[in-house]
Amino acid sequence: MKVKLICATTTDGYIARHSTEITTWTKDLPLFKQQTMNKTVIMGSNTYNTLESELRGRNVVVVTRKDNPKTIIQDIAKKESECFIAGGGRTNSRFAAYITDVYLTPHPILFGKGIRLFYDKTIKAKTKLVKAIPVPKTDGLFQYHFIVIK
Ligand SMILES: NC(=O)c1ccc[n+]([C@@H]2O[C@H](COP(=O)([O-])OP(=O)(O)OC[C@H]3O[C@@H](n4cnc5c(N)ncnc54)[C@H](OP(=O)(O)O)[C@@H]3O)[C@@H](O)[C@H]2O)c1
C-alpha cells in the first residue's frame, strides 16, 4: 500500500501561516488535481474547513482526533493500492508512520512562522529522490517525489 504525502511548502518549510488560512499562494493545484483524481485523499478537519470548493472526483476522507490512522489506512488498503495524505501539519504527523512517498513542491516564499509540514511526530528515515516533476505553467517550479526508505 502506497501512502503518499502531498504538499506545497514555502522555502522555509511551512505549509500555511495558520490553521485557518485559505491557501492562495500555491501554484501546483492543477498538478495536485491530476495526481489525486479518482483516488482517496485523507485530510484533517482544519484543512477541510479551509477548502473553498469540494475536491470533485476524489474520495475525501476527513479525519478528526477521534479517528485511528491505522484503521483508516487498513480500510483503504482493502480496496485500493494507494492513497494520499493532504495535510495539514497535525494530520501529516498522525499518519507519519504510514507514509511511503513524499511529493513536495517548494515555493519561492517565506513565512517565518506558521504550520510546519509535520506538527510533531515525523518520519525518522532516509528518503531517496525519485523524480523532479515540472509544475506546469509556472516559472520553473518543481514538485519533488521522494520515497521513504524504512
Ligand atoms: N500547503 C499545502 O499544500 C497544505 C496542504 C494541506 C493543508 N494546508 C493547510 O494546513 C492548515 C491546517 O493544518 P492543521 O495542522 O492546523 O490541521 P489539520 O491537520 O488539517 O487538522 C487538524 C487535525 O488535528 C486534530 N487535532 C486538533 N487539535 C488536536 C489536539 N489538541 N490533539 C489531537 N488532535 C488534534 C483535528 O481533530 P478535530 O477535528 O477533532 O479537532 C484534526 O484531525 C490549513 O491552513 C491548510 O490550508 C496546506
Straight-line N-to-C gap:
14 Å
Q: Tell how many strands the DSSP assignment holds.
A: 9
Question: At the fourth CATH level, what is the homologous superfamily?
Answer: Dihydrofolate Reductase, subunit A
The main pleated sheet reads as: 7 strands, mixed
Q: Order of strands side by side in the largest beta sheet?
A: 4-3-5-1-6-9-8
| Rg from Cα | 14 Å
CATH architecture level-2 label:
3-Layer(aba) Sandwich
Which ligands accompany this protein?
A: NADP nicotinamide-adenine-dinucleotide phosphate
CATH class: Alpha Beta
**Helix percentage range:** 10-25%
Question: What general form does the structure show?
Answer: globular
Helix and strand composition category: alpha/beta
**Unreliable parts:** none
**CATH topology assignment:** Dihydrofolate Reductase, subunit A
Number of H/I helices: 4
Task: Describe the protein.
- With 150 residues, this protein is α/β, with parallel strands linked by helices.
- It has one domain: 3-Layer(aba) Sandwich (Dihydrofolate Reductase, subunit A).
- The chain has 4 helices and 9 strands.
- The protein has helices at 29-36, 45-50, 69-77, 89-94; strands at 2-10, 14-16, 40-44, 59-63, 82-85, 101-107, 115-116, 126-134, 142-149.
- The strands form 2 sheets. Strands 4-3-5-1-6-9-8 form a 7-stranded mixed sheet. It has a two-stranded antiparallel ribbon with strand order 2-7.
- Helix 2 (45-50) links the parallel strand 3 and strand 4 (59-63).
- Bound molecules: NADP nicotinamide-adenine-dinucleotide phosphate.
- Residues 7-8, 15-16, 19, 21, 23, 26, 43-47, 50, 63-65, 86-91, 115, 119 line the site of NADP nicotinamide-adenine-dinucleotide phosphate.
